[in-house]
Design a protein that fits this description.
Blueprint: H1 10-24, H2 26-33, H3 39-65
Length: 67
């Protein structure tokens, strides 16, 4: 991942880097890897995340269609 520093403006480059890392999911991955997660816990977490994403999608679809 690269970020260009323009006009010696390191603060702006740092903000851009953080935003890119957030979009890529680097911070989330680091948080998950801090400690060991049992395979059963991982499956349960991923299933719950999937359900959450699906419900959010349904909510947005309903809102768009005016239900």
């Amino acid at each position: 991942m690269q970020v260009l520093v323009r006009d010696n403006n390191v603060d702006q480059a740092l903000r851009v880097l953080k935003k890119k890392m957030q979009r890529e999911g680097v911070f989330r991955e680091m948080k998950l890897r801090r400690n060991f997660e049992k395979p059963s816990e991982k499956r349960a977490r991923e299933r719950a995340e999937s359900v959450r994403r699906y419900r959010k999608l349904l909510r947005k679809r309903m809102e768009r269609e005016g239900y």
